[in-house]
Amino acid sequence: MADKKSRNRVIQLRNRITNDVVYTRSIDDIVIINGVKFIKAFNEYQPQRSFLINLEAYARIR
To answer: Which of 5, 32, 39, 58 is the most buried (most CB within 10 A)?
Structure first.
């Protein structure tokens, strides 16, 4: 389990990418596909539909 500070950072990062209220069920919901890290997240209005956010792309945009 990650510490609280990094958990908060992940949540803020997600909000900036989607410009929406987005949550993660757990900081541990990190998926690695072909060596690329994604975070599993879901939208406030459709919590049953999760989607993946590419962390590497976020770092490049920033």
So the answer is: 39
